[in-house]
Amino acid sequence: MADQQEILSGLAEIVNEVAGVPVDSVQLDKAFTDDLDIDSLSMVEVVVAAEEKFGVKIPDDDVKDLRTVGDAVTYIAQAGA
Amino acid sequence: MSGAALAPRRGAEYSRILGIGAYRPSRVVTNDEICEHIDSSDEWIRERSGIITRHFAAADESVVDMAAAASEKALASAGISADQVDAVIVGTVTHLWQTPSAAAELAFRLGAGTPAAFDISAACAGFSYGLTIAQDLIRGGSATCVVVVGVEKLSDLTDPTDRSTAFIFGDGAGAAVVGASDSPGIGPVVWGSDGSQTEAIIQDTPWDVLRDDPTHKFPSLRMSGQQVFRWAVYEMAKVAQEALDVAGITVDDLDAFIPHQANMRITDAMMKKLALPESVVVARDIAETGNTSAASIPLAMGRMLEEGQIKSGDVALLIGFGAGLVYSAQVVVVP
Fold this sequence. Notes:
The complex is a heterodimer.
Chain A: H1 4-19, H2 40-54, H3 60-63, H4 69-79
Helix pairs in contact in A: 1-2, 1-4
Chain B: E1 14-23, E2 27-30, H1 31-34, H2 42-49, E3 53-56, H3 63-78, E4 87-91, H4 102-110, E5 116-120, H5 126-140, E6 145-153, E7 171-181, E8 190-193, E9 201-203, H6 207-212, E10 221-223, H7 225-247, E11 256-259, H8 264-274, E12 281-282, H9 286-289, H10 296-306, E13 315-322, E14 326-333
Parallel strand pairs in B: 4-5, 4-6, 11-12, 11-13
Antiparallel strand pairs in B: 1-7, 2-3, 6-7, 8-14, 9-10, 13-14
């Protein structure tokens, strides 16, 4: 299973691919909407790409709880555990 | 029991679209006008949906009025007279008469005599469903010339104060005339439904609630944007690919991709998933027409023909998807 750092760097690549956000900007304390300007539809693209990359399921109902990059990293780590 | 054998009937093996007609109501509604009722902005709406304007029908303009205008154009472009039409199919979810159908009145208005006529409820997949039904009626010998219409007056079922849907929908009609062909002009359909996601796009109140409580707010459509986006992009891209596969072609054989005009972001994401080559022209009618549900595919095809983006004989992939959830895709030859 990927560790937190691997998940963070994988997620950063996805966010970069979906929304053009520089990889270095994707840090644990950054909020998807307020800091990275990821809107609700781009968030779906990020989530689905993360599901494929990390082999986890992230239902729509849980997506709204993923406010920060750290939230997503923790969720993916737990879902894949 | 007489044991008498019934006479079989068989129609033309192949069919194609003979003509397309589009009708947009005259009133153009800007994002700024939409934002008089919701806390949003022109920029936000464009970013989230790609929509710049949409058309709203006049209060006294019915779905049958719009359907008739589109159908007359389709018949003219096909070179077919109304009396040759022996079936009329209307895909709509906004004909607010439970009965009779829009199709029966439309057939009469067109001067088509007494053809078979019925409505289908397949939401944004209505036109694509209708094409398949027309194709099979012709193949089965039940009809020889079918008018298929997608028409919506979504402004009747839109809550102008609902921030998540008020900017999406528009009104309009698109029609096709379908008839026999020497070669396949409508590919095999890939279609289906997912009733587990009924709530994703839904009329928020059934009609009987108004009977029980006449003061109840008039019904309107509700949509779970993220849920629909995920389904549309990731599940529908697979359906679109399957429609190519069963037609025996690849994306490299395509001239045009004409998806239901749900949201520009859905179209963009589907294009990426399908890995369409740059040579494929993609329908973007949503920018000026909004999401017109069943009408969106023929409206987009009509615009692409008018603007010379596609031409007769081109090969186009169509895919409709929407409330139900339901979906339908097929490859067609452009008339």
